[in-house]
Inverse folding.
């Protein structure tokens, strides 16, 4: 339903140069996790999921807007196996077309049925602001030598998990869920989103570039303080810490190629078994997400798809 509806979005307005990058971005495909979660949450309480479709599309358009601007801020050159918008066009186009996507997202969410519109807009607006807060923390962390685990987890909660939670709560609200279930589904979204982002951290280092859709080692190259790096700095020997800082402080005199930097940091992660540590944290959040689902006022058989989707997100390779 989501993919078909996205394919039916048409931009007839001018100038075409504003809307072509939006069509390009939405044509990448992707998992469509957020709108799928919204429709699935609605469907737990109502057989009429059509009433949640337009706001679900708005959530997906908004998500893709954040990716467009995120790629620009990170200087990323590929997204879902394709050149990023600022690479294919230019940075100014990425900024303005991204702004237009944000407006389109609000337009779609504004088509929510009136009994739910105010609550949905309030939830979405708060979520959008929190995502900006998370992005700001992410940028600031790049400039800091040390970031605590708690700070990092709060950053990814804001940057990634809150939109999962927003979509689930919004879908359930439109479906007519009881108040308690709205909060349980929100918490399920937070825990699933945290596991999802930690898996993304792993894939950035250990993923297959043919399936991941982005260049491997991008976080290392940008000095991003991921869960792996934070714990590597805690556990590393003095010599390993010196190596990591040496690669952080690249100058004209000690310039390294991206391949050298990525290989050196990954080797330290391997020595310290960072992959196992992150995987254990992912499983912890997955168990919390499953507990959240168990609290819903729903028979277990109606939760099978949410269980399966959460598991697939944890096991994904892209």
């Amino acid at each position: 339903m989501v993919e078909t509806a996205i394919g039916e979005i048409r931009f007839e307005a001018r100038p075409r140069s504003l809307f072509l990058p939006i069509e390009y971005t939405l044509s990448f495909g992707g998992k469509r996790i957020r709108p799928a979660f919204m429709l699935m949450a609605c469907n737990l309480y109502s057989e009429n999921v059509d009433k949640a479709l337009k706001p679900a599309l708005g959530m997906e358009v908004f998500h893709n807007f954040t990716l467009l601007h995120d790629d620009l801020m990170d200087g990323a050159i590929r997204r879902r196996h394709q050149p990023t918008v600022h690479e294919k066009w230019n940075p100014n186009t990425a900024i303005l077309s991204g702004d237009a996507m944000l407006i389109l997202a609000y337009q779609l969410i504004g088509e929510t049925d009136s009994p739910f519109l105010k609550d949905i807009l309030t939830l979405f607006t708060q979520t959008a602001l929190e995502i900006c807060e998370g992005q700001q923390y992410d940028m600031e962390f790049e400039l800091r030598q040390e970031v605590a685990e708690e700070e990092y987890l709060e950053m990814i909660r804001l940057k990634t998990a809150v939109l999962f939670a927003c979509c689930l709560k919004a879908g359930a609200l439109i479906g007519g869920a009881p108040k308690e279930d709205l909060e349980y589904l929100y918490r399920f979204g937070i825990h699933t989103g945290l596991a999802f982002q930690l898996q993304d951290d792993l894939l950035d280092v250990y993923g297959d570039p043919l399936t991941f859709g982005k260049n491997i080692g991008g976080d290392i190259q940008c000095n991003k303080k991921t869960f792996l790096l934070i714990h590597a700095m805690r556990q590393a020997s003095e010599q390993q810490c010196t190596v990591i800082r040496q690669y952080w402080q690249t100058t004209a005199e000690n310039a390294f190629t991206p391949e050298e930097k990525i290989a050196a940091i990954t080797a330290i992660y391997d020595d310290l078994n960072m992959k196992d540590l992150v995987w254990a944290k992912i499983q912890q959040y997955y168990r919390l997400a499953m507990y959240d689902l168990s609290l819903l006022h729903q028979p277990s058989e109606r939760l099978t798809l949410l269980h399966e989707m959460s598991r697939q997100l944890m096991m994904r390779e892209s």
Residues 114-142 form the longest helix (29 residues). The radius of gyration is 20 Å. The chain has 16 helices and two strands. Strands lie at 78-79, 82-83.
